[in-house]
Amino acid sequence: MSDDYWDKLWSNPNIEEYKGYVKGYATWKPKFVEIFSQYRVKTVCDAACGFGAYSVMLAKHGFNISGFDISGESVNLTQKMLSEFDCSFNDYKVCSISKIEYDDESFDAVVAHAVIDHISLADAQIALSELFRILSTNGLLFLTFDPLSDEDINNKHSVLQDGSRLYEEGLLFRHYTDDEISTLLSGKKIVYSSKNLRGERELVLQKQ
């Protein structure tokens, strides 16, 4: 996958359109946010922050929010959304999830929504190590894994050696079965897991 795929995706955004999306997130309180509160989380990193929906939602629930993305366009858009919704925030960085530019144990929690399944299997293992590195001891990591949709199957793509799908526009997607997720997360402490009606898997892990 070309690194500039994400810059192209987030470049020249329709700010009003994105504000409409983010508005729906601003008052949403998903289960993992309740878990963060139960564990007295204060500082959160939004990994691969995209267009800022999760950053805004977390900020609105009172968390001290930072984040990063491989795309500078994404970071700019996220900061724009945070400002548009009157959210305070800390440092946002442009960096790879395989080499996160935060110090060890910088955060009480990390959110990585629909991230791990958009990198190769080898990079996923490195990324998990990096996400845990920036977590404080007993910190929480929220992960999601997307289902395999008809669109994923039917859109033109090639299949890489590790089973990932590389689409013509440059997007990489690797669908994980439940067993593959268990293997990937072997040895990790899972404090919460669920699967919604769409088939998206959600997990909260705790660093030990």
Task: Describe the protein in words.
This protein is of the alpha/beta class. It has one domain (4-206): 3-Layer(aba) Sandwich (Rossmann fold). The protein has helices spanning 4-10, 15-26, 31-38, 53-60, 72-84, 121-133, 150-154, 178-184, and strands at 43-47, 64-69, 92-94, 107-112, 135-145, 157-159, 165-167, 172-173, 189-195, 201-206. The strands form 2 sheets. The protein has a 7-stranded mixed sheet. The longest helix has 13 residues, at 72-84.
Give a topology summary:
Layout: H1 4-10, H2 15-26, H3 31-38, E1 43-47, H4 53-60, E2 64-69, H5 72-84, E3 92-94, E4 107-112, H6 121-133, E5 135-145, H7 150-154, E6 157-159, E7 165-167, E8 172-173, H8 178-184, E9 189-195, E10 201-206
Parallel strand pairs: 1-2, 1-4, 2-3, 4-5
Antiparallel strand pairs: 5-10, 6-7, 7-8, 9-10
Helix pairs in contact: 1-5, 2-4
Overall helicity: 25-40%
**Model regions low in confidence, pLDDT < 50 over at least 5 residues:** none
CATH class: Alpha Beta
β-strand percent reads 25-35%
Number of helices in the DSSP assignment: 8
Largest sheet: 7 strands, mixed
Name of the CATH superfamily: Vaccinia Virus protein VP39
Average pLDDT across residues? 95
- The total beta strand count reads 10
Quick synopsis:
By secondary structure, this protein is of the alpha/beta class.
Keywords for this entry:
Rossmann fold; 208 residues; 3-stranded antiparallel β-sheet; 8 helices; single chain; globular; alpha/beta; 7-stranded mixed β-sheet
